[in-house]
Amino acid sequence: MALKSIQNRLRRRAVNLRKGKVTGFTLLELLVVVAILAAIAGTATIALQDTDARASAAAHVAMMDELNKGIRTYRVLNKNSLPNNWDSLLHNDGGTVTILDNDDSDGYAALAVEDLALFTLNGAMVTALNDIGIENLRIVDAAADPADAGDCSDIQALINSRANAVVAGNLYLSDQANGCGIDYPVAGTPQVAVWTGGQERVLGSGAVEYDATTLATPTAAQDGARVLMAVGAGPSSSLFDASQLGGLTSVPVYRHVAQDQYNRFIILFHVGNINDDTTAGTFAVEAVDQVALAAIVDGAGDTKEEELGEWDGTRNTI
To answer: What is the pLDDT of residues 122-140, one digit of tens each?
Structure first.
């Protein structure tokens, strides 16, 4: 190619650049790029959906394992004594004891787990609990008066108010600690919460099922069923007293409940069995020889395996 021709082409290009004739993206090209970016963002959103919930489920599984090991270690280090001062999951209003509100028919449930029933311990069960170190529980008292918070008659309003320091997980602390809790001695014939959410779920195959109605008047169908007392792993428990041998340093929090619902894990202790009283020809609940840890469920009543299902995506997250 002749030198003159090359020079002419370079000159024309320089002139075009000075005139601003630089080729850019067309509107159609920009729209295509935007569409591609939107498709990528949509794919990423689908891939990352429920990531936070699944991460929480994984953490909950780890917490349940730590509680299990912590309770068993505490018992070994403290000469066969279990931790004391568990949250009873009960509410006392003028002497009437009920399960902490877990009926959402009124639009609110302070307790997310519904598989609980009120049960009166007999003397032998009380003795068995005392012998293993459980001599006191904590109960929410409607007449409690947390500092600068009003009374504890309306738990939902109390927790949701920004005028106080009351939080759902600390309901069973004393009023001096911004809670509504008082001592609930395990003596006489106290009422406790017991698990009715299906024994096979927490104990494995071969468990005998019962509900709140059949527990009150057991029949041959419930022969051999195990009675599991349910308590909450709240900060009042001696399990979280770092000065105790085997005491844990932090209280696990369950996060798949509403902000104004109790957010601790639930411990199930085997305290009795439904047995056939051959003498009377009836069925009754008899105390176990020694109270033992049976299972741990989360604050919504799910087992470890069910939480694992939320983690690996085989079960919907809450």
So the answer is: 999 999 999 999 999 999 9
* pLDDT tens digits, 54-63: 777 788 889 9
CA distance linking residue 165 with residue 186, whole number of Å = 29
- Whether 128 contacts 287, CB under 8 Å: yes
Degrees, nearest 5: CA angle 147-152-156: 110
Rounded to two decimals, the pTM is 0.82
Length in residues, the chain: 318
**What tokens appear for 22 in the block?**
């630089």
Q: What is the pLDDT of residues 229-268, one digit of tens each?
A: 999 999 999 999 989 889 999 999 998 899 899 999 999 9
Dihedral sign (CA 156, 260, 100, 317): positive
Query: Would you state the structure tokens that stand for residue 236, as one six-digit string?
Result: 């009042």
Of 288, 271, 259, 301, which Cα lies nearest the Cα of 137?
A: 271
From the centroid of its chain, how far is CA 27?
A: 54
